Amino acid sequence: LFFFFFFFSRSSAKLVAPLGCLVSRQKHTLPDLPYDYAALEPHINAEIMQLHHSKHHATYVNNLNVAEEKYKEALAKGDVTAQVSLQPALKFNGGGHINHSIFWTNLSPNGGGEPKGELMEAIKRDFGSFANFKEKLTAVSVGVQGSGWGWLGYNKEQGRLQVAACANQDPLQGTTGLIPLLGIDVWEHAYYLQYKNVRPDYLKAIWNVINWENVSSRYATCKK
Question: Name one GO molecular function term (predicted).
């Protein structure tokens, strides 16, 4: 019955108490974007960013806070049935908050190109080349049936990078054990207003705004 949730600032993430230990805590809040809604144009337009951030992500945050309050009440009452029944809401909204908090930092108006340093060397080691990696992550993301995410993650036990897909708002680490480095949102709300139903066009465009500095920093942190 225990999920771990992360509170994200613009540049860092801190682990907070598991739900079973929730006694007194601050509510989750919608993180500010480190750039304007129009900053990623023409690759992702301002209307998409505004709705995605201020409506969709905000809804996950609000619903997560509500679910956690209900969970805390169920814990106090020893109501195991209620605790179990709240798990889907906690997973969906908690995952939505985690995933989007990573996603915003993975993007930058000064992004694109290729990573450098240790991350680039790891990509070459584990995928053969950056081109191969890009092709694999794009294919995994295109192939998500319905809504979900494509991810580059770090397998700490094996010491290597992996690509993976998660359905809906399932969080990568809680679902697969991989530490999330780069997430690509392939829910329709992330692209439909601009790219209609042509997901491959959105995925082609998003590589122009990937914040490799942030992804590299996440990689360096998770290796420690």
Answer: superoxide dismutase activity
Q: Give the DSSP letter string of 2-30.
A: ----EEE-SS-EEE---GGG-SS-PPP-P
| Predicted confidence (pLDDT) per residue in 126-185, tens digit | 999 999 999 999 999 999 999 999 999 999 999 999 999 999 999 999 999 999 999 999
Residue positions forming the annotated binding site for Mn(2+): 52, 100, 185, 189
Instruction: List the structure tokens of 143.
Output: 């192939």
| Residue closest to 198 by CA, chosen among 186, 210, 184, 207 | 186
Q: Which residues are documented as binding site?
A: 52, 100, 185, 189
Which residue type is seen at 41? Answer: E
Name the pTM for this structure: 0.88
Residue 222 near residue 154 (C-beta atoms within 8 A)? yes
User: How far apart are the C-alpha atoms of 46 and 35, rounded to whole Å?
Assistant: 11
DSSP secondary-structure letter at 159? T
- Map out the domains of the chain with their CATH numbers: 46-106 (1.10.287.990), 117-223 (3.55.40.20)
Beta strands in the chain (DSSP E): 6-8, 13-15, 148-155, 160-167, 179-185
Element (H, E) at 104: helix 87-105
Residue 132 has which token pair?
Answer: 């191969």
Alpha carbons within 13 angstroms on the beta-carbon side of residue 189 total 15
Determine contact, residues 83/70, Cβ cutoff 8 Å: no
